[in-house]
Amino acid sequence: MGDLMTKMTPYEKLVITINDYLLSKKYSPKDIKRLKKEIPKRWEKFADVVLLPSQSFRDDEWTANGNEIWEIIGRSLEVERIGRNGEIVGKKRESTVEMLIGKSDWVIRKENGIKYGYHLTECMFSSGNINERKRMGEIVCEGEIVVDLFCGIGYYTLPILVNNKVNHVYSCEWNNNAINALKFNLKSNNVEEKCSIIEGDNRVTTKELVDVADRVLLGLLPTAEDSYHIALNCLKESGGVLHLHGLASSEDHQKLVLETKIILEEISNDYKVNNVNINKIKSYAPHWDHLVLDIEIIKS
Question: Within this chain, do residues 136 and 82 fall inside the same structural domain, yes or no?
Fold first, then answer.
């Protein structure tokens, strides 16, 4: 059995482990079949943590024997801590991860040579945006000034600072938990000297950041429309690039491009949209995609 287990996938091992556990608790074949439907086929694993999908292990029977099942799952997946994802809630994009086993929710993810530290239950982290984080670390040019209007724990701020000879990044955030994590991350990645944290609502706090930026990042879903005028104000008088996140129908990405172009040009007659590149980040929901529009703005 030992040799057989070593050849199995983590999912196969987990199913067998849980099946044996349920049999030991004298569950009926019918109940075992029902409960096993809630075993996820995929999960996130990093450091000593597994993050389970939000709909896994929801039946009350899983907790009927206290933490016993989580300890068994932890041993099967070879981790000390297990969390379960929830929805991202509120304007401040707060996490609702539930820690199932493990005393601390502080984690450090290592991605493309960058350390991201944060509290799982307080701050969000989208592993599906890994390619966009890498792209942001490659696209910025030497000597540029960047404004990140929704920086969080430094999702895009950090790759820009670590991988480029950027002049300076102004990172805007209003979630205190994310700000604390960002301060840790800037220091642990040795890039704090080239970053200024602008705390509070960017619609208020960016009044001094006029005519300074070569690029402005608007990494907020489903839309950052309330801060489009802020982004244009931050751009240098000669223009620059907006990296704007949004949602679009999987069948019609151009609709988001056209709608965004109209809104931006209506805000100010001083700037025109010169070019738009579309980058698909991932599928967001059935028939909807998460896009990033690279929008070149020039003075009219």
Answer: no
Residue type, 272: K
What is the chain's pLDDT, residue by residue, as a tens digit (300 residues)? 555 556 789 999 999 999 999 999 999 999 999 999 999 999 999 989 999 999 999 999 998 888 899 999 999 999 999 999 987 766 767 778 999 999 899 999 999 999 999 999 999 898 889 999 999 999 999 999 999 999 999 999 999 999 989 999 999 999 999 999 999 999 999 999 999 999 999 999 999 999 999 999 999 999 999 999 999 999 999 999 999 999 999 999 999 999 999 999 999 888 899 999 999 999 988 999 999 999 999 987
Using the structure block, give the residue that is written with the tokens 């999908």: 53
Determine, yes or no, domain membership for 117.
no
Parent domain of 269: 127-299
Measured between alpha carbons, how far is 51 from 16 in angstroms, rounded to an integer?
20
Burial class of residue 28, CB neighbours in 10 A (0-12, 13-18, 19+): exposed
In-domain check, residue 115: no
Q: What is the pTM of this model?
A: 0.89
